[in-house]
Every structure is written in structure tokens, then in C-alpha cells.
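Revision sheet: C-alpha cells.
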Amino acid sequence: MPKIEIYTKAFCPYCSRALKLLASKGVTPEEYDITMGGPKRAEMLERANGGTTVPQIFIDGRHVGGSDDLAALERAGELDALLAA
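Predicted:
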């Protein structure tokens, strides 16, 4: 199973949606809560090429994007292949 990482903030509906989709696939990602900022937020900005919105999702180090991007991968039938790698 690949390493799944997701940067989130408290009370973020997009974060909840992404986490729910991943859970439906049997995946428990490593979640980094950046609600209060800090070094993990700076890390996210660097890894996501300046992306400031949450969630920011990574699969085996590959930047997937946000919740809409994850949902688009699912609709295109590509998410399962990424999660099975």
C-alpha cells in the first residue's frame, strides 16, 4: 500500500470529503493538521508548490492536489490504481 499523506484544517468540509473518500477505499492516510500553522504548514507550501488551500493530498510523495482533484481521479477510474501501487 502506498503512503498517503493529507494536510488538513479543523472544520474543513473539503478535508472531510477527501478523508471520507479515502476511508471508503480502506485507506487511512497520515494526516497533518495545520489549523494553527507551524512547520507542517510551511512543509505543505513547499511540497504543494505554493498551494495554500486544504486539503493537499500526496500519494507516495506525488502531489495529487485537493479534494476536487481526488474526486476527479475517482470519477476517471484512476484512484484505485494509485492506491494499489
